[in-house]
């Protein structure tokens, strides 16, 4: 393979997507257009050069004065200032993104911390703490794929100290230490070294030639920490040291806002960062992100009562959502894929009787390790009912765990509901229903499943459908709903987080944060199984382990040819699906909602919906 073809990877996805569409590839959910205009580049316009005054000319002959006309009505200019009010029904619990598990925490950090680049709503990379996106053409990406060099902007931390390449080097060192237990480890694992060439230049050298030069320091996982604030927080201190705990709730940043007050699980208040490099271009003086409540109430607060400007993740049943949007008081903001709603299978035993060994990877699950049980569960779930009854136009049934970019949405998988096939699988595997019982069992083990998710009306509807589905094949389901602020927190001391997964199955939404899915697929490697040793934060909450998958993933990470790499990505998806390591349900197109006079919000498939919050403004 000629390494000069390496960086055709990202644009090749777009071409492959068009080819697959022409050949009848897997269909994608229709993309709802974003109502807000595309954000303009943040670089200041170049002033035009002055010109000489025109030469004087003779005055024209006098003419009769025209009749006066009415003066046009002036459009008032937006007046900067005031507070931007945002509702997140999943409350923010931490502002250090590298120790976070939930999207809401990454979003909360986005106002303060920045990566080198972010993905826009058109899936294009936009420089943030970098002067430009490095490429082979501009000399930033090594032709042999061994390194990438970033030129940094001149920026200042909110405490007035300069941002330098040392901060980038430090952020890698922070997450490279396994004891720190970064949730973003997959984005730093490929790095061999990070070198501060000078104060404004950083060079990343990969452990092996990398097909994706943008896996590190880009998007939500790539936000950069201040070395001076966190240098004593590497390793176990990251969560055990009191000063580090305080820093995790109040990071110093380079972004458009700085923290005023943090109430974990409730409210985060921000104010404009006077040290931000484009502070004069930031419209709002303050931002409040209020957590808690529910998605329907958040939507009503924007669309019906206009109490707040913006509400995130309006995951509500279609029967509730449609009249809220029909009220006409707001605009939905949606597009691309919000992520895949999925059921995660626990391959470890969550029995409380195991004590400290509960849900540890070396404790096999008493029945979820049986492929017949996992396959039967998959066959029994009625995805069509979930979408028809609950999601409506905001979701499509899917069999795949990866659906974006479209070129990687596998056409090979099927997931039609088949109760007879599910029952036969269980019968053939020896799981039978004893006389007088409705629950299958084998060797004294009963198929009784504990199933958890976050508190959300739509998700409790999904749980009810799945519970009824599995009852039809002799599996009893006990459902549990947990406050979203707790469920999606990274708190290693809380037994109800998705990371610990002290149940047999759980449900939530996730998706890739990069056009290249390497970091996304990394989560299912054996080495990343969540455990006490990694603070339950290694991203493999199901403790899935298949050496065949690990081998295929390694092959994927070494492949440079775009077409071959795309095919390997599809194979990784197909292996996870055929193994029923995870059960995809719905490709979500869930909207956010905004007031009609709020300009700037867009959707981003691979980044935070707040990715361009420095450009938001209120118009008359």
Give the tags.
about 625 residues; about 25% helix; D-Maltodextrin-Binding Protein, domain 2; 22 strands; alpha+beta; 16 helices; six-stranded mixed β-sheet; single chain
Strand tally: 22
What is the mean predicted local confidence, pLDDT? 90
Identify the overall geometry.
globular
- Going by CATH, the homologous superfamily of the domain at 339-513 and 580-588 would be Dipeptide-binding Protein, Domain 3
Which CATH class of the domain at 339-513 and 580-588 applies here? Alpha Beta
The N- and C-terminal alpha carbons lie at a distance of 56 Å
Strand order of the largest sheet: 7-8-9-1-10-20-11
User: What structural class do you assign from the helix and strand content?
Assistant: alpha+beta
* Residue share in helix: 10-25%
- Using the CA coordinates, give the radius of gyration: 26 Å
Low-confidence stretches: 1-9, 11-69
Compute the number of helices.
Answer: 16
CATH-defined architecture of the domain at 339-513 and 580-588: Roll
Largest sheet composition: 7 strands, mixed
Residue share in β-strands? 15-25%
The CATH topology of the domain at 339-513 and 580-588 turns out to be: Dipeptide-binding Protein, domain 3
Could you characterize the architecture of this molecule?
- The chain has 620 residues and is of the alpha+beta class.
- Among the domains are: 80-112 and 255-334 and 591-620, 3-Layer(aba) Sandwich (D-Maltodextrin-Binding Protein, domain 2), CATH 3.40.190.10; 339-513 and 580-588, Roll (Dipeptide-binding Protein, domain 3).
- 24% of the residues lie in helices and 17% in strands.
- The chain has 16 helices and 22 strands.
- The strands form six sheets. It has a seven-stranded mixed sheet with strand order 7-8-9-1-10-20-11, covered by helices on one side. A six-stranded mixed sheet has the order 13-19-12-18-16-17. Strands 4-6-5 form a three-stranded antiparallel sheet, covered by helices on one side.
- Helix 10 (383-391) runs antiparallel to helix 12 (457-471).
- The model is unreliable at 1-9 and 11-69 (pLDDT under 50).
